[in-house]
Amino acid sequence: MTERGTGVETIRAVRIAGPGSEFLIDDEPVDIHISGGRIADIAPTGALPARGEVIDGDGAWAVPGLWDNHVHTVQWALDTERVALGGAASAAEAARRMSAVDALPDGRRVGAGFRDALWPDLPTLDLLDAASGEVPTYLINADVHSVWLNSAALAREGFRTPDGMLREEDAFEISRRLNAVDPAHSDRAVRDAGERAATRGVTGLVDFDMAWNAEAWPRRVQAGFAAHRVEFAMYPFDLDRAITAGLRTGELHEDPGTPDAGRGLVHVGPLKVITDGSLGTRTAACSHAYPGDPANFGVLTVPSDELVELLTRATGAGLAAAVHAIGDRATTSALDAFTVAGAVGTIEHAQLVRHADLARFARLGVIASVQPQHAIDDRDLIGKHWAEQTAISYPLASLRAAGAELRFGSDAPVAALDPWHAISAAVTRTDDDRAPWHPEERLTIDHALEASVRSSLRPGEPADIVLCGADPRTATGEQLRGMPVVATLLGGRVTHRA
Q1: Residue 292: left (phi > 0), alpha (psi -120 to 50), or beta?
Q2: Burial classification of residue 339, based on how many CB atoms lie within 10 Å of its CB (0-12 exposed, 13-18 middle, 19 or more buried)
Q3: How, if at all, do strands 109-114 and 83-84 pair?
Q4: Hey, is 405 helix, strand or coil?
Q5: Sign of dihedral through CA atoms 263, 265, 270, 275?
Q6: pLDDT interval class at 3 (50, 70, 90)
Q7: For residue 494, with 0-12 CB atoms within 10 Å meaning exposed, 13-18 middle and 19 or more buried, which class applies?
Q8: What is the pTM of this model?
Q9: Cα–Cα distance for residue pair 454/267, rounded to 1 Å
């Protein structure tokens, strides 16, 4: 068996199922020949002599390497060390779960993934204090836009709040502090997480970690990280630093002496700007108020004029923009800013979009970077909190029909970092025994795969290739979620072999 790290020159007897299949006249097996990390030729099996290291595909289905276009990398990597609260059905249950766990080496108890928007009871300071005692205890909302702390944690972090809940920027600050572990620790966690991602066919991700990633990624690669490609973002608080350092979106960013396996993997990404809140925290900026709270239309955390200024500065410095906009007011504000600034880039999430704004994505060349799994995870929240909104919730087919380019991601750790989950969610709009949620927004499997890759299987393209144990084009939603990944190649080098 070809082991991880091996350079491959021939993949024998595979069927191409994703982008690139349109250039073939039939579905018969082909051989993929690789040279210098790129696809050199694709020919009928046996038509050309095999060279170098060979993987026998044995009829597996090949698709281009998969990307996750929205990941909070360190938070995702450290999530395995935190108490999973996704199944907590109430505030009382979540607090009780936290009381039963040991503190981390730094003296904190940390849980993550709770969804309080549908709880029958309210998270309160008294409730959490009674369960957790004197141990600093932190519970991070699944959407990361709010954090529930006990009195000991509030005192340790220097915050005060009557209900123990911190929201938006205060919540982000807590997450930054929790993620600021020893670099050797976080780098080890990121390496292990990257290797797990490779088992699901991941060959690239966009890192939205709230830190100065321009130092972290070259350091990780020097230490041996080689699992996937990375585009790293920076935030407004580091914009001056990025401009001074001469960072420009798309440029290679690596240190001299980078190990061979890590060369060419790290590139500068966009400026990330968070302009509103989230549905789960009831802070996404919307046209209509949240039910039962007539004064709450969500929050525009970055006013429109300030957003224009940020995007104008970024554009002048050669940086693309990635604008977080969940509510329809925020999406409109973001599109307006792209228009005025002449910026390029993405709108991240676009979970509520006015009908009149759909075509603006294509006209402006703004990419819709969306997370299809969120539509399924949030369907009950939408029915409760966005029932009175008149814009389109979680559009996919509507955006594509309007000419917008779609890119898929997970927002990990908000959802699992598994592109097959995103693909299945986009194709089926359900992940349980319920009927598809707004089936008119489903995509075809070909369109879902297109939104999940950055390349095509054709000569001259990078040899980022995933071999699948089943045909994605005929798989059910459940089969897509559990897609067996036989092998993952990054530039012709094996990063996973089943």
Answers
A1: left
A2: middle
A3: parallel
A4: coil
A5: negative
A6: confident
A7: buried
A8: 0.96
A9: 14
DSSP state of 80: G
Residue with tokens 């009831």, as numbered in its chain: 282
Which residues are 234's β-sheet partners? 271
Angle at 355 between CA 429 and CA 424, to 5 degrees: 15
- Provide the residue type at 291 as one letter: P
Q: What is the DSSP string of 128-140?
A: HHHHHTTS-EEEE
Q: First-to-last CA distance in the chain?
A: 9
Cα angle at 322 between 320 and 325, to 5 degrees?
150
* Sheet strand arrangement including 146-149: 83-84, 109-114, 137-141, 146-149, 165-167
Query: Helix, strand, or coil here: 47?
Result: coil
Length of the chain equals: 498
Element spanning 331, H or E: helix 328-341
Strands 10-16 and 54-56: parallel
Which residue type, as a one-letter code, is found at position 301? Answer: T
| Per-residue confidence band for 1, with pLDDT thresholds at 50, 70 and 90 | low
Angstrom distance (rounded) from CA 423 to CA 407? 11
Q: How far is CA 65 from the centre of its chain?
A: 15
d(CA 206, CA 266): 10
Distance CA 492, CA 37 (A): 5
Which residues, 6+ apart, have CB-to-CB distance to 193 below 8 Å?
73, 76, 77, 80, 417
Query: Who's near 3: CB < 8 A, 6+ residues apart?
Result: 494, 497
For 441-497, what is each residue's pLDDT tens digit?
999 999 999 999 999 999 999 999 999 999 999 999 999 999 999 999 999 999 999
Rounded percentage of the chain residues whose pLDDT exceeds 70: 100
Q: And the tokens for 331?
A: 């999406």
* Residue 345 Rama label (left phi>0; alpha psi -120 to 50; beta): left
Torsion sign (Cα): 234, 236, 327, 171: positive
Q: Write out pLDDT tens, residues 286-335.
A: 999 999 999 999 999 999 999 999 999 999 999 999 999 999 999 999 99
> CA 377, CA 300: separation in Å to the nearest integer?
24
User: Minimal CA–CA distance to 81: which of 58, 55, 102, 50?
Assistant: 102
Beta bridge partners of 204: 67, 229
Give 95's strand partners.
none
